[in-house]
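Quick review question:
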């Protein structure tokens, strides 16, 4: 009922504006046209059209506010989901994290994705293919503040040759030491951080 009252009130305001504003603006618009050296008849229809557009924009402001509010709510929900997802990732076991990374690669479009045996994997936890491109991935589910070092970069670089891969990745829930970043840059190892 309240929304119907608001609608009727808004419609009355628009009709009133469409009837009054063109008459109120007639003299200022004429004097403006004359001072600009323009001659011609004052056009009630043009001013009526301008008033209608302005009225529509004023009314549309409410819809814009509602849309902005919905976007803000959607962003807040997304942030909440991300927090839950991130806390979930930190609670995974190392082997569960490997499965999680494998699923991420599938979502990124890799067609063949498989985890390696739990032992004797030669430094690679996940193997994947994207067309003809083969990649090997090492997964380090470390607590924040415990960075991945040079040893992991060396291991995945060796695994890349062992498995005949084109690219080598390291995924971690933590960060990388400066030495690891430098070495990865020289060897072409791609470092990825799972956001937490």
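Suggested answer, residue by residue:
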């Amino acid at each position: 009922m309240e929304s119907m009252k608001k609608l009727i009130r808004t419609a009355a305001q628009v009709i009133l504006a469409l009837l009054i504003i063109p008459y109120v603006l007639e003299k200022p618009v004429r004097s403006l046209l004359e001072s600009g050296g323009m001659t011609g008849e004052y056009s009630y229809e043009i001013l009526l059209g301008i008033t209608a557009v302005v009225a529509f924009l004023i009314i549309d402001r409410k819809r814009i506010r509602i849309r902005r509010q919905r976007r803000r709510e959607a962003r807040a929900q997304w942030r909440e989901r991300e927090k839950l997802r991130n806390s979930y990732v930190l609670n995974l076991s190392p082997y569960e994290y490997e499965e999680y990374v494998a699923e991420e690669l599938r979502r990124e479009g890799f067609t063949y994705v498989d985890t390696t045996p739990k032992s004797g994997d030669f430094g690679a936890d996940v193997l994947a293919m994207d067309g003809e491109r083969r990649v090997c991935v090492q997964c380090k589910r470390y607590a924040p503040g415990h960075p991945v070092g040079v040893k992991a970069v060396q291991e995945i670089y060796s695994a890349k040759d062992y498995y005949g891969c084109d690219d080598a990745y390291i995924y971690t829930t933590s960060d990388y030491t400066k030495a690891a970043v430098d070495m990865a840059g020289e060897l072409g190892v791609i470092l990825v951080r799972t956001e937490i």
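Why it works: The two ends are 47 Å apart (CA to CA). The longest helix spans residues 44-90.
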